[in-house]
Specification:
Blueprint (H helix, E strand, L loop, with lengths): L7 H27 L7 H10 L4 H30 L7 H31 L18 H15 L1
Helix pairs in contact: 1-4, 1-5
Length: about 160
């Protein structure tokens, strides 16, 4: 699959199929509901944090501590996802977002993920609640894929 030769609609369809295949229709739906644009201005927060920059030795220690903490978090995250795949627990909203983003990036790469979201956002009205992605203009069979896989998942339960 060469994502550089695919249309946005094709990338969207491939992304949905991968999400549903790995997360199931219900978690895919939750993931797509949670991931929507917002109007938060990060620049003010960034300028505030830049004003309090520590000296270099302190920054080196902070980086080392952050790396250790990230490794521990990744280990726990992996254990929780493994437990979820075995049906032992439910994922939190943030875990759903992280897993969905990882699945998309692994499948489509960063450029393909951006195209996926661009297509998704222009297909949905965020003022309304999102049930399943609305039928994309260029890929009329995306809803059919979601519906078919959702019914298959429900019949397995």
């Amino acid at each position: 699959m060469n994502i550089l030769e695919m249309t946005e609609g094709e990338l969207y369809k491939a992304g949905l199929e991968e999400l549903i295949g790995q997360m199931g229709a219900t978690y895919t739906e939750q993931f797509l509901k949670q991931c929507k644009p917002n109007d938060y201005d990060y620049t003010a927060e960034r300028h505030k944090s830049l004003d309090d920059d520590p000296d270099i030795p302190t920054m080196v220690n902070q980086i080392r501590e952050r790396k250790i903490a990230q490794e521990a978090e990744e280990r726990i995250r992996t254990e929780r996802i493994d437990a979820w795949r075995k049906g032992l627990l439910e994922l939190t909203n943030i875990e759903i977002c992280e897993l969905g983003a990882k699945i998309l990036t692994d499948k489509l790469g960063v450029p393909g993920s951006i195209a996926f979201w661009h297509h998704h956002f222009k297909q949905n009205e965020w003022a309304q609640s999102v049930n399943l992605p609305q039928q994309p203009v260029s890929d009329g069979d995306t809803d059919a894929i979601l519906t078919q896989q959702k019914h298959a998942a429900e019949s397995q339960d």
